[in-house]
Amino acid sequence: MPDVEIPERNWFALFTASNNEKKIEERLRMKEFETFLPLYTATRRWKNRTTVKVALPLFAGYVFARFARSESARVLDIPMVYSIVGNKFGSIALPDAEIDALRQGLAGAEAEPHPHITVGQRARIKSGPLAHWVGVVSRVDGGVRVVLSVDLIMQSVAVRARIEDLELLEEQSTELKVGVSSGRDGNRELV
């Protein structure tokens, strides 16, 4: 029996219909694709004035999936998957380390969606699961939050942090571009 070459699977961000991310993730899993759909808990008040806690997608309109480029058509056949995020040259794979860091970092953190920020004070997280990541400091509700951005999908996440766990970096007077970079020492950071 000849050796069958298995194509390399990479992580991609899928642009999807909002409010359908959970259904899309389920359909991807049914087709045996590995998925990642980070959720956060929000309190919502219904018309009858009852409040409930609901799990909502952290990145509205996006689902992460691991597949080979040759499987793109199978992914795009899923209803409400609009496109694979990329640029004019095609889809762009996300590094495994970035998805792993998001999974680990978000597992122990209180995170919530945050508008994508391009200006503000930069800070590096010094300790914890998101150590070495650089983001933008934002004060909300009297607490300190660090906004970490995934530029490829133009989405950000606000993570609560103690000021003692932050290293403030020099202030930038012009627009701050936040994106993923891999330093010479191999540490991943948002810059």
Could you please describe the fold and organization of this structure?
By secondary structure, the protein is mainly β. It folds into 2 domains: 1-94, Alpha-Beta Plaits (2-Layer Sandwich), CATH 3.30.70; 111-191, SH3 type barrels. The chain contains 3 helices and 16 strands. The chain has helices spanning 21-30, 72-76, 96-107; strands spanning 10-16, 34-36, 39-45, 51-57, 62-67, 81-84, 86-87, 90-91, 111-114, 122-125, 134-140, 143-150, 155-160, 166-168, 180-182, 188-190. It has a 6-stranded antiparallel β-sheet, with no helix packed on it. A 4-stranded antiparallel β-sheet has the order 2-5-1-6. It has a two-stranded antiparallel sheet with strand order 3-4. β11 and β12 form a beta hairpin. The longest helix has 12 residues, at 96-107.
